[in-house]
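Q: May I have one protein plus its fold?
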Amino acid sequence: MKAILWLFCLSLGVIAFGQETLEVTANKFLSNDAKGIMVIEGDVHIKKAKDTLEADKVIIYSDKKRKPQFYEAQGNVKFHIFMEDGREFKGHSDKLTYNAQNGEYRLLENALVNEVGKSNTIRGEEIIVNNENGYANILGSKNKPAKFIFNLDEMDQKDTTPKNKQTPPNPDKDAQ
């Protein structure tokens, strides 16, 4: 009974911290208060603001106040994240880590990220996306190189200058 009560208290601490809400559902929750670790297994679904994470297993590492600091998701990882600049990304990987301190996601092994509403796709063995600073780093391997697919027409839509009036770069002038 004490373990159930403690798990309930930990869940409340995880779910209601500050003004943010973290909603976690799964088949099994295991927790260790002394280590600040909660292991969640079986059809795990986590929602924080508009961001979602699904996996077979998630380990949440919390501070002494039970505020989540670091997440590690394993197996059939799927996610949907919203960047500070309004862009949305969906994807999957075999493993994902999230550092709540700096807003950094690391997608590991067979990682794929798609920008919602665009045909932009990134594949790699390790993809790092920082939600707060808006950057992405992609690493491939010898057998699986990193791959980028960008629709250049979609990128040109942001440029309001008519294409036929753009001035081509002048190498002589740029060299001065």
Observations:
- The first strand starts at residue 16 and ends at 17.
- The two ends are 77 Å apart (CA to CA).
